[in-house]
Amino acid sequence: MTVTADGVTDAGAGQVDWLHIAREMADDLATDAVEREQSGKAPLDEVARLRESGLLTLPAPAELGGGGGDWRTAYAVIRTVAVADGAIGHLLGNHYFLSCSARFFADHTRAARIERESTAGQWCWGGGIASHEPPLILTPRSGGYLLNGYQRYATGVGIADRLVVRAARYGTGEPLAVLVDPARSGVVSGSSGDAFGQRLAAGGGVEFDSVPVAADDVLGSLSPDEGVLSPFASLAAPTARLVSVQFCLGVAEGLLAEIREYGRVMRSPWQPFEPQPWPDSPPQDPYALTVYGELTVVARAASALAEQAVDALVRGLVQGEELDDEECAEISVLASVAESAAFRAAQEITTRALDVIGADAASARHGLDRFWRDTRTHTLREPVTHRLREVGDYFLNGAHPPFALPA
Predict the structure, then answer these.
(1) Scanning 34, 285, 372, 377, which has its CA 20 to 30 A from the CA of 386?
(2) pLDDT tens, 115-148?
């Protein structure tokens, strides 16, 4: 299996059927998804299942001990898992991005060293480097740095083997991506059980109290200032945004699959009761069929935009350092278009789909509310209005979107 320096598998080189493994994982997660979500326990068992399946190391280059999967495959795996369990799909998607973050921000030697260690230890990654988080403070000291501060939200803080966080260099304020071992003294994870959705994403606050950081674990700059990041490094933003896209589409498709099975065997709540026995199956309510049709169109339109954005991103990653600013901007805009469509589709589907079931959709035994809660929790962290403004400014003025990493 051959893999390029930026982790993109050559066409036809893959030997592992990652989608088959992902479907098996999704089937496994689906069997007790409602019970696990309602219990809200830390997803230690779920991460163990991901580790055993090999999915945690999928995007790492084969020569570094990883699965050699490309981003197209990784996105498909995230979406497949999210169909069955949105929170675990979200956890896996953030793991993929954060475990690959050194490729964008660090030099090649350092990135290869980190990915080799990660695959050898089968690390699960968490954290967050969103631009709207109050920065932690990274203070130089002899032989490295000390990290201090509180991060309001980071994924996987309760179960991660490594965290990637955003910190400001003391004295200059330059934002940096920093790799942290959560087992170090001074790292204190806060509560992760107070969100009404994504209860199994192990997200929450985390405090850093004089945590030692080696100089080699400062991955690189996150500065949005012009000329600091190369166009290739700036692809980190659309790469992360397309993780969000796959999560939203997976959750929406998961709920659509649930209500389709329900609608095939149960009477629509909108249809008057007929006293005569049904000959073969419940009569089909034309109003319910219209809702199914509308939501299918919304889902497929968002999916088509996502595919277009993924195609553009994969081409950009293959170009590597030859990518120019205009090409990077186009990829970023396509990712923002896809994210806007996916967020709106997920919100509409997870709200309106329950209407075709009616009052029975509120029953806790079905657990259908988890789809809406997972989606709404996610979209609250990243309002779609910002993406729409960027798309509009690019359309009207040709303005390049600013470098901004999502939550």
Answers:
(1) 372
(2) 999 999 999 999 999 877 778 999 999 889 999 9
Count of helices and strands (H, E) across the chain: 13, 8
Q: Tens digits of per-residue pLDDT, 364-404?
A: 888 889 999 999 999 988 888 999 999 999 999 999 999 99
Q: Are 332 and 238 in contact (CB under 8 A)?
A: yes
Nearest to 95 by CA among 173, 33, 155: 155
CATH (residue range 231-272+281-397): 1.20.140.10
**What homologous superfamily is domain 127-221 in, according to CATH?**
Butyryl-CoA Dehydrogenase, subunit A, domain 2 (2.40.110.10)
- What is residue 158's predicted lDDT score, i.e. its pLDDT? 84
Hey, what amino acid is at 102? A
Backbone angles phi, psi at 146, to 5 degrees: -120, 135
Residues, the chain: 407
Distance CA 150, CA 137 (A): 9
Identity of the amino acid at 123 = W
Of 110, 90, 7, 109, give the one whose Cα is nearest residue 43.
90
pTM: 0.91
Those residues whose C-beta lies under 8 Å from the C-beta of residue 46, and which sit 6 or more positions away, are: 29, 36, 85, 88, 91, 200
CB of 176 closer than 8 Å to CB of 218: yes
Report pLDDT for 193. 55
3-state secondary structure of 9: strand
Continuous segment of H or E residues that includes residue 140: strand 136-141
Q: Which two tokens stand for residue 280?
A: 């073969």
Instruction: Output the DSSP codes for 212-233.
Output: EEEGGGEEEE---STTTS-HHH
| Domain 18-124 belongs in CATH node 2.40.30.160 | no
Residues sharing a CB contact under 8 Å with residue 260, sequence separation 6 or more, in sequence order: 292
